[in-house]
Amino acid sequence: MITMNPRINTFDYGAVDFDERPFLAIWEVTQACDLACVHCRASAQPERHPMELSTEEGKRLIDQIAALQVPVFVLTGGDPIKRPDLFELIAHARQAGVRVSLTPSATPLLTREVIFRLKEAGLARLAVSMDGARAETHDAFRGMAGSFARTLDAIRWANEAELPVQINTTFSRRNIGEIDDLVARMEQLKITLWSVFFLVPTGRGKLADLLNAEEFEQVFARLFELSGKASFDIKTTEAQHYRRYVLQQRAAQRRAGVTAAAPEKLPDTIGRAPRGLNDGKGFVFISHTGEVFPSGFLPLSAGNVRQTGLAAIYRESPLFQELRNPDSLEGKCGVCEFRQICGGSRARAYALTGDPLAEEPCCVHIPRGYVKPPQAARRVPTLHVLQGA
Fold first, then answer.
1. 3-state class (DSSP) for residue 283
2. CB 3.0–4.6 Å: which of 102, 199, 253, 255 could bond 172 by disulfide?
3. What is the pTM of this model?
4. Residue range 319-376, pLDDT digits in tens
5. Which of 70, 74, 72, 96 shows the shortest CA–CA distance to 17?
6. Residue 34 CB neighbour total at 10 angstroms
7. Rounded CA separation 231/234 (Å)
8. CB 35 within 8 A of CB 145
9. In 3D, which of 142, 206, 209, 144 has the Cα closest to residue 177?
10. Per-residue CA distances from 360 to 114, 236, 351, 364 (Å)
């Protein structure tokens, strides 16, 4: 059972049992969006889908999230602001005791008035994307001129509304050259969390934009360096092996007798995930039509909330159960000493091989005693990308 401290109104995150409930649930309330992002996993379109979950279906889903006591609940898209019932859904979640984070798109729809209405409705955190240190890079990523400026406006308005801000950045070959400038910019912004995504070639995401394993390590090094001094937290998405990197660096610091004082962080109402979170393991994604996936980047459906309760799908689906079992992992991930806390990106493994249990294709680490099988015995990677998932 998840326990709460009534004095500070926060969850005891260490008590989350990933076999019983997810730590993080994301509901894609719509795939409609006015942007045309080059890496969009949803291949979003301007118009809403006629089979989206209705307002009442959405409220029932939120009630299930509340019953499961999911600590972190995110409304995403597409652009959630394209749904006229968004404020009603957030207010319902607040009444149900669910803390909501929102990831809107930086378009003309995201106004100061909207941000203040979101805060009034009960939103706990606003998450906006910044995929370049300069407007030219970010706007090219997003497919709309002015998106970068609107992102900065949204951050300023959220600060004004005293609404905690999260920045999402997706690293790929299109912006890896700006990492130092992005790090510098993050240090200048008043945010609670920098959430760093690593490309999964699905939807509009292209294999040619995927960083290689050595480049992943270079990004990890910059993130680890920043984490030792930043006033905000840093987390990664679809880079589960950053946890391995952090443990290795901390062990090296201890051996060298280095002690680093933790920097003071800005107040946050959401909290951080315990170790081991992965696609289908403490993580669940509900699509705009109610399909339940292990993550938004792993387009294998385990059921639909219109027919089956979310708890039953998460707990009983063979797909989710297999993904939660580290002994089911293949290749070097299956014998890695870090598989309990890492496990590699199941979504990226699937995108490149068609097998969600295959080894993480962008990890440099070689487990102790691991001998790579002969080339003839190894699976030949084939890109397995589903559009619109």
1. strand
2. 199
3. 0.89
4. 999 999 999 999 999 999 999 999 999 999 999 999 999 999 999 999 988 888 776 5
5. 70
6. 19
7. 10
8. no
9. 209
10. 40, 15, 11, 9
